[in-house]
Amino acid sequence: MANRTAVKVARVLNGWQKLQKSNYPMQAICGAKTRAGGPCQKHPMANGRCMLHGGKSLSGINHGRYVSGDFTREALQAKKRDALLILATTALLELEEIL
Ligand SMILES: [Zn+2]
Questions:
Q1: pLDDT tens digit string along 20-57?
Q2: pLDDT band, residue 19 (cuts 50/70/90)
Q3: Phi-psi region of 48 (alpha: psi -120 to 50; beta: other; left: phi over 0)
Q4: Count of domains in the chain?
Q5: 45 in a domain, yes or no?
């Protein structure tokens, strides 16, 4: 549960930071032509269109199916780095015992 809350908080913060960085258009509506013929009234995203009409597709922690980052490239590299660190440390300790 705590992990889910942390993911949600990170999602909100990430979205807020992206919003701050982008030149957010001061357009009140999406404006894409709907099947009914009129302009779409939804709130636009950073690219000027809503989620239904070309807004950003979510990836990483923002994606709806994101569960955890245990097998991301960065996490796997971190695991390898930790394993190497442990190997190096044990090798050094064994060397100290010999000397
Ligand atoms: Zn739209």
A1: 666 655 558 888 889 999 999 998 887 778 888 887 67
A2: low
A3: left
A4: 1
A5: no
